[in-house]
Amino acid sequence: MVITDTPMNIAIVEDHNALRTIFRDHLLRDGYSVFAGSCAEDLDEYVAEQKIDLLILDLNLPGENGLSISQRYRKAYPTLQIVMLTVKAEAQDKIRGYEDGADFYLAKPVSAEELSAVVKSIARRVTFLENQDSAPSLDILKKKIRYNALSIDLSSSEIKVLKSLIEARDYCLEYWQLMELLGLEVSDKNKLNLGVYIHRINKKLAEVGVPEPGIKSLWKFGYQLTEKFHINDQL
Question: Where are the domains of the chain?
């Protein structure tokens, strides 16, 4: 069973009564919150009252078809995960499904176990993305700070300073360590210059929503990060 503090809320839209019931009951046993409807109207009524994380959608439905629903919901809810179910398995049909917003495309017949495996994969991905968004991320290769879907470019020296602070004990470095890191002579004048430099980094951190100050001054000691950062250095 999948056990989470806030179970993923899933909506199934499938007009085959027996199949809809099988999918719903299997996913309920997996620990998810599940709504099951037979048409676009059922879905719209439910979503008007409840937020959903995943939409499992049959292509051939009475009234508005699955492609139209997928396109409409993708536009309204950009982060919604969508699984399309269809008897059509041609490449062009899959391409059309992806273009209209589907994240996964499963050709019928689909077993409840196969659908469950796909849902578990999506749940892991959603959890990972939520955890990534819970803290700022330093993207070393692309030279950016990312936070809550925002990003800003950094210079090579800014990357060096942030990476060193992230990796330092208690996220703090002394004045002389930072000056040496930037190739500056250790002096009172450069201590002031360092303060100006840290101020510029803090402005960038604030622009992506990192609570101010992202780097705080420690009196007569140095500077310390006030937030936990992820480091992404993978291709």
Answer: 9-133, 137-232
Q: What is the dotted CATH code of the domain comprising 137-232?
A: 1.10.10.10
Q: At 151, give phi and psi (nearest 5°).
A: -150, 160
| pLDDT tens per residue across span 163-200 | 999 999 889 999 999 999 999 999 999 999 999 999 99
Give the pTM. 0.54
Angle value at C-alpha 31, between 53 and 127, nearest 5 degrees: 45
Per-residue pLDDT tens digits for 66-91: 889 998 998 888 778 899 888 765 55
Distance set, CA 169 to CA 67, 151, 182 (Å): 52, 26, 19
DSSP assignments along 63-103, one per residue = SS-HHHHHHHHHHH-TT-EEEEEES---HHHHHHHHHTT-S
* CATH (residue range 9-133): 3.40.50.2300
Domains 9-133 and 137-232 share a fold: no
Taking each helix axis from N to C end, the angle separating 156-167 and 188-207, rounded to the nearest 10 degrees, works out to: 90
- For strands 54-58 and 9-13, give the pairing: parallel
Per DSSP, 135 falls in state S
Per DSSP, helices labelled H in the chain are 17-29, 40-47, 66-76, 91-99, 112-133, 156-167, 175-181, 188-207
For Cα atoms 135, 216, 132, give the angle at the middle one, nearest 5 degrees: 5
